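Hi support team,

I submitted a single chain yesterday and got back a structure, but I'm not sure I'm reading the token output correctly. Could someone confirm the output below corresponds to the sequence I sent? I've pasted both exactly as they appear in my results page.

Thanks,
R.
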Amino acid sequence: MGLVHCGKCASACSVGAAPSNTGVAKEGCLACGDCQKFCPTQAIEWQRNFWRGKSGQVVPADDIATPKYQEARRRFLKAAFVALMATAFWEKTVWAAEKVLRPPGALPEPEFTAVCNRCGRCIKVRCDLCLACQEVCPTGAIAKVPLEKVRMGRAVIDQHRCIAWNEGKACLICGEQCPVLAIAADEQHRPSVLVDKCVGCGSCENACPVDGEAAIRVFPG
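Hi R., thanks for writing in. Yes, this is the structure output for that exact sequence:
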């Protein structure tokens, strides 16, 4: 039947990212697939680039019937056998290497991905260590842990981008925003991360005034 604009995909989406008239899921899409599951006319189909790690793109079935997508589908089928043979090895190498930041108390990665239902409740607001994510998680993918045991990642300062380090200007906004006082300043008012205190909440990265990519970023581990 194709697109009928019934709105059931929008009603099913827990984060308001259902496909619009452009045929592409909005920013914030959790790739849960609920829009496709609840579509009564099967007008939504997922396309995912496994090798470059891009987010899934929702494309109307009407568009997929065009020659462009038919050709893409033929190429995909030709590569399907090779992809299936490589899946086990690829998952153990690429996915293992690409660690991601998880909420405080998140279960180990294999368990987390198996239990999490992608509802998005834990990421409604930026982390300020309130630990509300542990309370709102409906599946138990985020365990309840005390604040002193929270370790999501570690902040790293890029001295080539940092205003204080690279330009010699006074800027300690990252330290001012850190809720656990994990950023200290030296005699020249340049920030440094106290690794033993940093919990990886990301407050410093969100507050960094540098244009483009922040001069301080949080990495898993």
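A quick pointer for reading it: The chain has three domains: 8-64, 99-149, 151-220. Let us know if anything else looks off.

Best,
Support desk
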